[in-house]
Amino acid sequence: MSVATYVLDWHRRRRGPAAGAVTTERRTLYVLPTRAGVVFALLLLVMLLWALNYNASLGFALVFLLAAVAFDAMRQTHDNLLALTLQPPRVEPVFAGQPAALGFGLVNAAPRARYALELTAADGARAVCDVLAGGQRAELVLARPTTRRGRLPFGRVRLATRYPLGLFEAWTWCEFTGAGLVYPAPLGTAPLPGGGGTTPTGRGEAPGDEDFHGLRDYRRGDPATRIAWRRAAARSGLPPVKQFAAPRGDAELWLDWALLSPALDVEARLSQLTAWVLEAEAGGLRWGLRLPGMALAPAGGAAHRRAALEALALHATTERSDG
Amino acid sequence: MAERAVPAAQVYGLVGALAFAAAAHGAVLPPWLLAGVVAAFAWRLAVAGGHLRLPGRLVLGALTLAFGIAIALVYGTLLGRDAGVALLAGMSALKLLEWRTRRDALVLVFLGYLLVMARLLYDQGPLTALWLLLACVLLLAAHLACAFETASPPPRVLLGRAVRLLVRGVPLALLLFLLFPRIQGPLWGFQDESRARTGLSDEMTPGSIAELARSGEVAFRVRFDGAPPPPAARYWRGPVLDGYDGRSWRTVGWAEGLRRDAVLGEAPVRYVVTLEPHGRRWLFALDLPAAAPADATLGSRFVLSRRIAVNEVLRYEQQSWLAYRTAAPEAGMLRLQRQLPPGGNPRARALAAEWRALPDPAARVRAALQLFAGEPFRYTLSPPPLTGEPVDAFLFDTRAGFCEHYAGAFVYLMRAADVPARVVTGYLGGEAAPGGEYFIVRQSDAHAWAEVWLPERGWTRVDPTAAIAPERVENGAYGALDEPGELPLLARRDGGWVRATLLELDALANAWNDWVLAYGPERQRELLARLGWPDIDWRGLMLLLVALGGGGAAAAATWAAWRGWRRRDPRVALWNAACARLAEVGLRRGAQEGPLAFAARVAGARPELADEFSAIARLYAALRYGAGADAAALAELRRRTRAFHPRRTP
């Protein structure tokens, strides 16, 4: 493995992270024999000694033929990876704890087909593409576990192939500057703020809590008070959660950082706010979000939800500017 | 990594390739092992078909243990050809039952290559070479299939690619074959001397050469440098037999230590022999060999012999004196060659005692030849058996025999008459191949004659058979025998078109022998000398190999680059770029889909792209398949392609 580390150091000195698509080129493409290749070489050596010991001329012919085929296969392995374009991944935001799916686009602009391409991440996630015809694009999806909210750097991936004979491996590394987004995990048991001081209608009751609307499956972060325990006992799988329809339009809900106890740490408060955002949006409310230093005016809908979650994800991180 | 079932198609391919490689060994494997291997193959196929399950670790362990014990009991060793083949076949079968991962598949393919190699230790004819190529194609196809994890291409495609891999390897393989430094094997000493092969032995009993004469197999082929010597001079000297035990003649000791007699020779004839493997150490040369080829020695009885048995096709250059005179041998040698077992054959001894009165040994020789010529002796492949005293019975009762009877009786008489004499075995004659370029010497040309020591001439060849059947010398056994029909087809002269065709094919076998099988250190040196490197050593060869290989690789790379550059047709590149952008938004062009058909499909799926893309497709089709190159149209295609940026469906 030390060889690979050495090559990696060398590679990083020659090519830094890229913002856009990366096309494999000769100077950053590496080829080494695999373990099977080393075993094959030993096999040929044994066969050579065998031919020598028995003076078997046709045996020499077989050994040399196989050696020549293997040698040519090395070149084919190299060419199989050359001039492929790897595009930075598309990734949908996820909540912390959920795996993110990084969908790398692999484009073969050349007319000839490529075979048995393998993409691996540093954490061992792996995706393969058995055939990539000329002029085609394939999407290779790497699952990446997430633990913390914030930016999810794409990092370095390794594009490799062992085609045709598995005796050599050609590979290159592609590092992308971009990053995906990880929302805070929606956790917290506090009920939606009861329309408190910030709700102009002041009906004294928590909106979204009154009219029983139906049941849906449990999601992380649903308050335990909402779980329909009696029903849950009757069926397997995720426990059902009571859903309440709130009257639309007249209720404006503020999800405010300041409502949460300062005793909670930052992450717990963000998680609680995330859970509220989901709950409010699921309930079809008009809601706004207030964080230290920013506020989102009350609204509803997917775009609003995305903006709010992004703000939560990037709250007090160093790189929130481009969100 | 999670274990996934091996795709059935891959199993069929690999089992087929292995079966093809292993089937060639069917005759060598013991029946129990053959049955076991077949059962394992069938088991693996049934697993792939979903009818059975792979054996568990316990069952497999038990099978492996049983197999190991059986091999050890049957062969007693793991070295040697037969044990090695049995081991390989059994291991392949067991590994098949253990095959779960890609690594196992590669191990199986490697075992397949070894099985192919093992076959070459038994046979290396042109047909085996053909089989080898087929087996390689099948194994390479199975090898290729290992690269794919889910969707392995159909067998036809895999086989095609395997053929291409093989063909691309041929130039380098040829270079390696010709230039890789060869050394004479073996490197270590396990040689199966016991391999039963047709050919002369170092022992002669009545009937042994007649038996050999019934075989039409080729013993060796000869190419003369100039005019071939006359038939009466084509005596190919093999083992010399000088010990007699009353029944058999054999070589007494190898007597390597004895001094070789000095020879005065004239008129050397040069030729090249391509000897078929015969499993013994001696080589054949025209009487009398003048020198020994590399790696061989000329012994005290003028017999060429090698350090190791000839188990491969051997090609050597040789020269011989057709006229020669040898100096006096050591006294010990002469004493040895006067010895007879005490007693026995009283009539022959009485006759020889009469000749002893003749003062000149040459006169005693003539007397003996007159005996053979004067009495009604017959030359036959199947003489009546000799009972009682064999020499007496032959000389005075049956009077029918093959060359070994005559040579043996003659030497017996000579020794009894106090003339040093010995039996020489080898071949006599040989048939010119159809083109006349070389001679074929067959086992049916096997012969035995005598050599006597005359003080004024040294060792002198005497062929008593020639006194009875002079045609044998001129025309081979066919013309001289009482029952020529007993000879094999190829040893006869009346075979008709079948024989004629087989003789034509012999040229192929001869070329194969000369250029493939006999290509060893000697032949390599010869070739390099002809190319202008007479004294190149292995370091020089390695350099040459690297230089030629590197040069070839560079030339190939340049050619590929040039072709790639040629192929980078701007029209195709632009079209591919446009298609790649569409593929990105989920519209893939089918492998066989033409530009206009694809444009129509795109228009159907994404009407807002129809105008732009149809224009691109029409331009491309016109440029590519239309009247001819048009700079303006190409510029238009470039402009439109650059501006073409389809978005994902909102």
Automatic annotation (TrEMBL), chain A:
Region ranges (Disordered): 192-218
Task: Give the keywords, sorted.
Answer: Membrane, Transmembrane, Transmembrane helix
Where does the chain cross the membrane? 29-50
In terms of superkingdom, the source organism counts as: Bacteria
Question: PANTHER family this protein is in?
Answer: SLR1927 PROTEIN (PTHR34351:SF1), SLR1927 PROTEIN-RELATED (PTHR34351)
What protein am I looking at? Uncharacterized protein (DUF58 family)
Q: What is the lineage of its organism?
A: Bacteria, Pseudomonadati, Pseudomonadota, Gammaproteobacteria, Candidatus Competibacteraceae
TrEMBL record, chain B:
Q: Which SUPFAM superfamilies match?
A: Cysteine proteinases (SSF54001)
Q: Which InterPro entries match?
A: Bact_TGase-like, Papain-like_cys_pep_sf, TgpA-like_C, TgpA_N, Transglutaminase-like
- GO terms for MF: peptidase activity
- Read off the Gene3D superfamilies from this record: 3.10.620.30
Keyword annotations for this protein? Hydrolase, Membrane, Protease, Transmembrane, Transmembrane helix
Q: Where are the transmembrane segments?
A: 31-47, 59-77, 105-122, 128-150, 162-180, 540-562
According to its UniProt entry, the protein's GO biological process terms are: proteolysis
Q: Where does the Transglutaminase-like domain start and stop, copy by copy?
A: 395-466
Q: Is Membrane among the key words of this record?
A: yes
Q: Which Pfam families match?
A: DUF4129, TgpA_N, Transglut_core
Its recorded name reads: Transglutaminase-like putative cysteine protease
What organism does the record attribute this protein to? Plasticicumulans lactativorans
Task: Tell me the classification of the organism that encodes this protein.
Answer: Bacteria, Pseudomonadati, Pseudomonadota, Gammaproteobacteria, Candidatus Competibacteraceae
